[in-house]
Structures are given as structure tokens and as C-alpha cells.
Amino acid sequence: MSGRAPVLEMRGISKTFPGVVALDGVDFTLHAGDVHMLLGENGAGKSTLMKILSGACGKDAGEIRVNGRPAAIDSPGDALALGIRVIYQELNLVPQLSVAENIFLGAAPTRWGGVVDWRTLYGNTSRLLGDLGMTLDPGASVSRLGLAQRQMVEIAKALNNSDASILVMDEPTSSLTSREVAQLFSLIERLSSRGVAIVYITHRLDEVFRIGRRITVMRDGRHITTRPIADVTVSELVRLMANRDLTEHFPKVRAERGPELLRVERVSRRGALTDITFSLHAGEVLGIAGLLGAGRTELARVIAGADRLHEGRLLVDGREVRFRGPADAIARGIGLLPEDRKAQGLVAGLTVARNIALPHGRRLSRLGVLPRHCEVRVAKPIGEELRVKATPTQAVRLLSGGNQQKVVLGKWLAGDVRIFIFDEPTRGIDVGAKVEIYHLINRLTARGAGIIMISSELPELLGMSDRILVMHRGRIQTEIEAADATEEGVLAAALGLAS
Amino acid sequence: MIIASSAAPPGARSVDAMAPPTSRAHRLLLPARQFGTVIGLVALCAVLWILTPHFLTVSNLLNVAEQTSINAIVAVGMTFVILSAGIDLSVGSIVAIAGVVLGTALQAGQPLVVALALGVATGFACGLANGALISWGGLPPFIVTLGTMSIARGAALLFTEGRPISGFDAGFRVLATGRAGFVPAPVIVMGIVYAAAHFVLTRTTFGRYVYAIGGNEEATRLSGVPVRFHKTMIYGVSGLMSATAAVILTARLNSAQPIAGMMYELDAIAATVIGGTSLMGGDGTLGGTLVGALIMGVLRNGLNLLGVSSFLQQIVIGGVIVVAVLLDTVLKRRNRT
């Protein structure tokens, strides 16, 4: 591997956004067959570097060489012609079309000048899928596929031209189950053995050691180190990423268990939830585990008033409540941190302060008029408490993922919320911000709040919860004291194996 | 595997440490985009001044302002709607029906205040009906307001049997013909409407929600904002603005016509987008819309003074709309990456 010229060399890449140096003279080298883990906290510059590589964004300075030759990448088309393929977190498929149509979108084989040659199309697709070891029906509609399968389609689409030599994957496992992850990893192994160079961006350190060959760590827009995976340990890696010693495990602090805040009694919602009963006490973190589609998010939305329940009842402080919308739930002190912060949590064009103050307009205003700077006054101490790296008057769009998540959290810290529902609170955010969120959870429970935490990361769920409910197909499969829980036990229940 | 620290990380920067350069740069860039349209307006005026000496006289400029006032007022409502990521095609028809109700009430001998209230209430009610169907009915704004456009126009024609209602008291016509000093009454009304609407948009919770709904409706709903109510009110505002324009138009023409306000929706949309408001919602200002309306008014006036045929005028105005939005898009893209 070391004898041949690298597939890709990026030298001294710099990029400045208005007011922010995103990349500062970054070097990055990639060899054929490498599985290269690109690591760093959010805002470290990984995504920007890959955007420059894929032509989605221009560079201010630096040089790119592909297969030893200088390459001018000014548009996504240039990058494609050079054999560079990027698979983003948000998949770009047309759900209404079939697997084959998506893979050959814009490049379908045709006859008689424009009529799609379906037989060749399906034949080519079958051959490609077989080559990649994927068991997918070429004729299946993408809308019927699960997320992992859609990801497979995306990868097959990226590789349908044989000249793909560099494949970039940005957090490909963030919404996959562990079996799907294993499938993906064996595919990566196969691609790597065929000589495809893979850049893999992730926040999950266990994955780094499972499939990585080399690692590159970035921090604050700079290249920190590149080395073989054998030369690095987990704690060293975390230190390199965060530049701070993270020695302790989950910083869980048990708070005193107070009175019952919320009781969910025999709640059902057609097609999503069946007969859910549990209660949440003050000072408690109630973890909810389950696979994708087990009904965790649906449960969160019903409690937060975003969706109606069809049967059963909710009691807050022992009194029955009926929510006609999120406003009613908020009035009873329930705040939801939604699963998808971009689509459900934030108004990207508004400032940090206006996002944080959004649920509190009525309280802050007098006869509908907002006093000058009232939003900034509310948001400033919250921004400081959460260490949001931005001023209150900055647009949320310009913030990194971790900081955006803190802004969504900030919305509920500004009010009288006592029941927090966190749906995947640490998804896609960096280690430093994760720890800050864990500390925040401790502070909230110490103040007597109750927290429902939905998470797909079992270590986090086991480390931060007091009790864990495991959901399977819309039902509560089992309830476990966190102290007695093991990852294997929770996973088995989530798969519906134990009761 | 996740490992955590208890102590404050030494590398963490304070809230303000890195922010000032970003926000300063941002503050400088945003007005630059606003200035773009203002510079366009000034340049347009300069060219017309060179081409025709009549253009830059006080009387002509006041004339332009007066002619612009009706479109500018309708465009206020359109800006609210477009900021919320909607569209209102019914504004022109609402101008007609509000004018017809007003004119009928005046001719029936109703006191001025009652007639005005009836006309304005008609416009507001039409807007609320639009909003209610969009928010509670879950229908696309384009479809609902397209329907209202036809219904309101038909109602106005039916109600008047297609005939204009003409001849009103001087006490009413003063709303168009009156002057405070040398400033025509419609320009004063326009000023008051813009000042009030600007206050609502920038200083009230309603204004915040307009931007928030346009930026991300689901996130706004999950924040506990009564989105349906406020969306209904947004279309109500649009109807209110159409009715206000109808009052001025009726006074100016000394006649309420069921065919009034044809194509006003397109002028109002044009003024709004020339002024830099994004059709995707969540981004734009009323100041921009006023400049956009003035650009259209100045252009029409200037082309008239130059004796350009009305056919050619349409082509020029269409070109200006496309070029203005193109420039705005290019500027925004440059700011972003």
C-alpha cells in the first residue's frame, strides 16, 4: 500500500466562512483499499473538508491530487468524473421509484432513442447488487425499504460506474440497528478488498476500532494526526478529539426520587402504540430503549401533545390532562426535544435568542408586544449555562450540530418545564457536547425535574438512566432497573426475545 | 464507548469569545443585500433623470408615490403571507369586493365610518376565510386563494350586476384627493400602514411567529405556538390590506368597480420578491417590499414619461422582476458559502 502513489492527496486546504475559519491548512492522504476514519468534534471541519472534496463547496487555498495528478474540483460533476462518491446522512433517493431506477437514475439503458430497456436495467442491477453481496429486489419500490436497505441502494448507486475509487460516508450508521450495521460493515470490507478507498466519518468510537485501518483526527479546522489504528487507544483518541482528558465514565448523579410527575395509563395509538402504562417521578431519568420503529418516538410525541392518543389517559401531578396540541402540554410543564432537530427543533433562519424564546412569546410580551431585547435577555444566561458557542443574535443556521442541539434544549430551560422528553439527545453531536448534555441532565434531575430519555446508544442509556423501559412493536416489553441492566439484556428485550 | 469528564474542559471557549467576528460579519452582510435593492432604485431614478427632465420634479415624485401606494399597501399583506411560506392570489378580487361593499354602503347613505368599517370588515373576513381553510382544512394556499380569487370576483360582479357604483361625497373622496401640506393622502395612509406593519412584524409575538412559521412550521408548532390561529390571522392581515387599498382606490376613482384590482396579486408578489423576500418563507423585510413597490412604480412612471408603449413596458417590468430576484439569489448564495 505504501509503495504506490496515494489515491488522494489534499494539501494545505483552507476555507473561511464569514467570520469563521473552517479549515486551516489541512492535509489529508488516502490510499487504495484504505478504510480511513475521519474523526473530530462537530465543527472540527470534517464535513467542510469532504464538501470541498466532493465539489459541493469551493476552497480558498490548497491543492488536491487524485492518483498523483493535480485535480481541479470546482463542481460536484468534477468530483464524480474523478471517481469520488459521497453518501450523505440524508439519503438522496426518489422513494416512488424502484431500486433499479434509483441506482441508474439518469443513466438508465435505453433503446430506440429514449425508451427504457427494462430487461437490461434489471439485469444490470441484479449483477451489481450480486457483486456487492446485497440481497435486494431490483424491482422493489424504495419507499417500502428500511433505512439500512435504502443506504445499500445509495451505495450501489454511488458504485454503479466501475470507476468509483473514493467513497465518503458521513455517519452512515446513525439510524441503523446493530444487525444492519454488521451488514454495512461487511460491505465496506468487500469494497475495501476491491481497492476502493473509503473515508468514514463517525462519532461512534466502537466503530472506529471495528472497521478502521487508519484514523485522522481534526480539531478546530486543523489536522491533528493521522496514524494506523493499531497505534491508538480509545482514551487517546478521545483526548486527541477533545483536547481534554475525559477520564470518568458517564457522570451520572442520582437525584432524590420525588413525587410522581407523570402517569401514562393504558395509552394506545392506532398503528403505533398498544397499551402503554408507566410513571415518571421527580428526580428520575427514565430511559426508553427499542429498535427503530418500536414506537419510542410515537410515545414521546403523544406525551408532548404533538399527536393524539386514541385510548388511555395521561395524568400530570395526579390530574388527568387532555392535550389538543403541543401548547397544552407545554402549559403543563412538558417539553420535547425532538428526534430531528433540523426538521422539528429549530427555525434555522432565526437567531439563537429568537429560537430559545419561541415557546415563551406570550409570557415575554405585553399585549402581544415584545419589550426591546427581551429575547436576548432570556437567551443569554441559557446560552452561557449550556456553553453555546455563539452570540444570541447569530442565526442558528450557522451553528454546528452540537450547538444547535443546545439551542433546542435551551427552549425548555427558559420556561417552567419539569417533564423533559429527550428523543435521541446526543445523536450526531461530538463527545464534548454529549458530556455537557449529561451534566445538564444531572442538574435538571437535582432540581426535581423528571426526564424521559430515548436513545439508540445503549451505553448512554444504561449509564444515564435510573430505570429503563424497553419497547418492542409498540408495546412495553419489559422494565429494568438501570443498575441491573446489561446491554445484552436490553437488546434481547428490544428484539422481542425476552419478557 | 463513551467517556466523560467532570471538570470544565480547558479548551472550551466562553460564549462570547469567538462570536463577535461572525456576528459582525453577518451584520455587515445582511444590510448589503438590502442596499442592493435601494441602490437599484437610486440607479433607476438617476437614469430616468438623465433621460427625462420631468422625472425628478417634486410633483412627479409625489405622483409616483401616490400611484405606488395602492400596490405598496396590498404588498404589505402579501409580504406577511409570503414570509409565512404561503401565497395569496385573491388580493385583487378582495380589493374589488371590499370596494363594492364600501361603495354600496356609501350610496345607501350610511355614515362614512360605518361604510368604511363594512368595507374593511369584508376584506378581513375574506382573508380569514382563506386562512381558516388553509390552516384547519389543510389545503394548499395556492388552491384556496385561487378559489377565493374567482369566488370574490364573481360575488362582486353578481352583487353589482357588473355595473360600477359611482359618485361619492367629497368627505369620502378626500381620502384620495386630500393633502397634508404637499403630501397626498394616499401616501400618508401608505406611511401609516408601513409603520404599523413594520412594528407588528418586528416587535410583536405575532410578527415573530410569521417568520417562525415560514422558517419551520413543525418546529414552531412543537414550540407550543398556536400555528393554525396565527396562519389564519396572517391571511386576515392580507385581506385587511386589500380592503385598505380598496378604500383608496374607490376614493381616487370616485367609483367602486367590480372589475377593480385585476392582476393586483401579481404586482404585489412582484414587489415582495423584488424586495428580497424569499418565496420559501422565513426571510425578508417590509422595507424591502416598499423599495420593490417603488421600483415598479418608478419604472412604470418613467417608461410612460419616455413614451414607451404599454406592450414594451410589460416586457421591461417582467425582465426587472427576474433580474432582481436573480441578483438576490446570487448574493444570498455568495453569503452562504
Any overview of this molecule?
The complex is a heterodimer of chains A (499) and B (337). Chain A is of the alpha/beta class. Chain A is built from 18 helices and 22 strands. Chain A has a 6-stranded mixed sheet with strand order 6-9-10-3-11-12, with helices on both faces. A 6-stranded mixed sheet of chain A has the order 18-19-20-15-21-22, sandwiched between helices. The mean pLDDT of chain A is 87. In chain B, the strands form 2 sheets. In chain B, strands 1-4 form a two-stranded antiparallel ribbon. Chain B has a two-stranded antiparallel ribbon with strand order 2-3. Chain B is globular. Chain B is mainly alpha-helical and 337 residues long. The N terminus of chain B is likely disordered. At the A-B interface, α8, α10, α11, α13 and α14 of A face α1, α8 and α9 of B.
Major β-sheet strand ordering of chain A: 6-9-10-3-11-12
Q: What is the overall shape of chain B?
A: globular
Largest interface (C-beta under 8 Å): A-B, 74 and 46 residues
The percentage helix of chain B is over 70%
CATH architecture descriptor name of the largest domain in chain A: 3-Layer(aba) Sandwich
Strand order of the largest sheet of chain B: 1-4
- Number of separate structural domains of chain A: 2
Fold blueprint:
The complex is a heterodimer of chains A (about 500) and B (about 325).
Chain A: E1 8-17, E2 20-30, E3 35-39, H1 46-53, E4 61-66, E5 69-70, H2 76-81, E6 84-87, H3 99-103, E7 110-111, E8 115-116, H4 118-131, H5 147-158, E9 166-170, H6 178-193, E10 197-201, H7 205-211, E11 214-219, E12 222-228, H8 234-242, E13 260-269, E14 273-281, E15 285-289, H9 296-303, E16 311-316, E17 319-321, H10 326-331, E18 334-337, H11 341-345, H12 352-357, H13 361-364, H14 374-386, H15 401-413, E19 419-423, H16 431-446, E20 450-454, H17 458-464, E21 467-472, E22 475-481, H18 487-494
Parallel strand pairs in A: 3-10, 3-11, 6-9, 9-10, 15-20, 15-21, 18-19, 19-20
Antiparallel strand pairs in A: 1-2, 1-4, 4-5, 7-8, 11-12, 13-14, 13-16, 16-17, 21-22
Helix pairs in contact in A: 14-15
Chain B: H1 19-51, H2 58-83, H3 91-107, H4 112-135, H5 141-160, E1 165-166, H6 170-177, E2 179-180, E3 183-184, H7 185-203, H8 205-215, H9 217-222, H10 227-253, E4 255-256, H11 264-274, H12 286-305, H13 310-336
Antiparallel strand pairs in B: 1-4, 2-3
